[in-house]
Design goal:
Chains A, B, C: Pfam families: HK. Chains A, B, C: Keywords: ATP-binding, Kinase, Magnesium, Metal-binding, Nucleotide-binding, Thiamine biosynthesis, Transferase. Chains A, B, C: This is Hydroxyethylthiazole kinase. Three copies of one chain form a homotrimer. Chain A is of the alpha/beta class and 265 residues long. The first copy, chain A, has eleven helices and nine strands. The first copy, chain A, has one domain: Ribokinase (UDP-N-acetylmuramoyl-L-alanine:D-glutamate ligase, 3-Layer(aba) Sandwich), CATH 3.40.1190. Chain A has a nine-stranded mixed sheet with strand order 2-1-3-4-5-6-7-8-9, sandwiched between helices. In chain A, strand 1 (18-22), helix 2 and strand 2 (41-44) form a beta-alpha-beta unit. The termini of chain A are close together.
């Protein structure tokens, strides 16, 4: 298997796809800036009255349940239905899955509404989403990503989705295929919105790369390599957060080829 | 025509006007910090129960429709009505105008509720607001600002508003007057919330400068000059975003006189 | 009286308590990053459907009324009731108290719902909360913190709360005790979310330190000392904001002992 990391980044930048995010309050600014820095075009819109039209003009839909409330859930469903009907990629970020039964119930409803093209979460969220009855410790904690591979395979088979599990090693699963990406730095877990940005960037790649497995791998590799490059500039969370945005703008296709560590199984 | 750029900045800083923002989730933090850095005093409040009182103690009202939903629209209308009754300047930022019919309908309702003192948007938003039936590509895209001058004149005549069109050259229109401001740097389009900050800062100047045309010019010149000064420090979007906030605090009246490039027509 | 500043910071970092925030849109990202940087684990959740469960798995609840609306108030009450029943510390940040009657009414309802363990605000907010009929000038303004000591004592006696008044000198009151903390820098008032971060960090300490008076003092000292350390790196508000997050991650227990200036009365 050969992922066209360089081409995909160039395509993203030349197409500058509009990514429609229905996401949480905590990360809206950061993910909008991450998309802009990388070269995509973000829009955040959650009104029931406009999500259909917004999905229609967008290249991908990213749904993130970080700060849920009931009227947002209705808009998420309508947007997902619309995206599915139009054949636009849907990225689901199950933030805090397992933390409360409300989150689990909403996630079950969303999965029934339309199968996501890509599901991206940390290990505990993917485990919870797959029905493993664990309780997460907040939205930033993780279990080992390799522990949750079984859950990722199960989700992928049930919904036909690519499942991207973020962790020290990112594991990306589609059907019986898996890719392991060994990039990134631990400091990324000390900045809020890194996972949410990974999902948003999966939306940007999903909008321009036909194969969602390849899109998810490109997104995870871009995040990980940018994390490593940013860590050369900044070792503490505040300045790292800013250096990471800089790096998303500065990263070249050649950086990806040179630094991405991807294995397939 | 002689704009008192230096005096206006000094007045803003000595008065530190309270600017009441009903704005979008994406930029709330950044625009609050921009107002604080420049020397104004921000408040963000959107509850129907309190917007009348908040407008009453504020020096200006900034309404930004970036992340619309229906209960916010009711509060926007009540706040605009109150501001109009009390003679306080209203700044309207029609984020994403033209992207969905919901946005267009809400904007039409807001314009009927009370004529804005200043309307500030990018070229495509101003075109859409003026009824030109174009579809915007997301909230950060622009058409050439000069293309939208006709739309700006039409809006200004219909509503008596100053219309400030942001772009490579900012064009500010009032009745038959126009000012062209050739400051700023392209990197400003790669940071979310720059346009929204321009609107918030127009609110801060609007609160302390009697003539809204002069207030809008002062705000656009301040944004553009700060963009140029910040670009001396930072060439990538993350660090530029931070340098821009620093510059809002550091800019002196003399910087404005020295660097602002304003032409009148 | 001997506050175990060093131990408390070490305990916070080793326990990494989950802090449940129902807070305002403006500061959500910054306070989440502040908690993560210091070593705690943030969660932001406001849905009526899930706050009970979220409080149950959290170590502390922080309620901040910065951008109020009615359906959030219901969730705040339910969360506070749940926290009180479970004996978990409740931190109340009365942002903008006194600015509108809606805020005052909501605060009265919240105080009736459950007595906060710690109330943290600036001088004008504490005065307003204590019923002094003053009008605040926005959410970032302050009166001298010493002016509001009487109000703090009154609140502490009425509700059994620790009351932490932020200002040039922070004053922390419990019953007849008071602590005065002379740390921090004036630039902290030019960055939005500093007060809200102080409340969130009081939640983090409250989750791991038994005595709420000691928790509030540890939080205020940590904020103030980090402000001084960050000011060594950055003198303007944008870069200071980022340096402050870095400092929260970098501060050692020894820094606290060395730099904290605490007096008791």
């Amino acid at each position: 298997m050969e992922i066209q990391l360089e081409n995909n980044l160039q395509t993203l930048r030349s197409a500058s796809p509009l990514v429609h995010n229905i996401t949480n309050y905590v990360v809206m600014n950061y993910t909008a800036n991450a998309l802009l820095a990388l070269g995509a075009s973000p829009v955040m819109a959650h009104a029931l009255e406009e999500v259909e039209e917004m999905v229609t003009i967008a290249g991908a839909l990213v749904v993130n349940i970080g700060t849920l409330s009931s009227h947002w859930v209705e808009a998420m469903k309508l947007a997902m239905k619309t995206a599915a009907k139009l054949g636009k990629p849907i990225i689901l970020d199950p933030v805090g899955a397992g933390a409360t039964s409300y989150r689990n119930n909403v996630l079950a409803e969303l999965l029934e509404t339309a199968p996501p093209t890509i599901i991206r979460g940390n290990g505990s969220e993917i485990l919870a989403l797959a029905g493993a009855s664990i309780k997460t410790k907040g939205v930033d904690s993780t279990v080992s990503s390799t522990d949750s591979i079984e859950a990722a395979y199960a989700l992928s088979k049930k919904f036909g989705s690519v499942v991207s599990v973020s962790g020290a090693v990112d594991v990306i699963v589609k059907g019986n295929q898996a890719a392991y990406i060994s990039n990134g730095v631990p400091l990324m877990t000390r900045v809020t919105g890194m996972g949410c940005s990974a999902s948003a960037i999966a939306g940007a790649y999903g909008a321009v790369v036909k194969d969602p497995f390849e899109a998810a791998i490109s997104a995870a590799a871009t995040m990980g390599v940018c994390g490593e490059l940013a860590f050369r500039e900044a070792k503490s969370p505040g300045s790292f957060q800013i250096a990471f945005l800089d790096t998303l703008a500065e990263i070249t296709p050649a950086h990806l080829t040179e630094l991405a560590k991807i294995k397939y199984a």
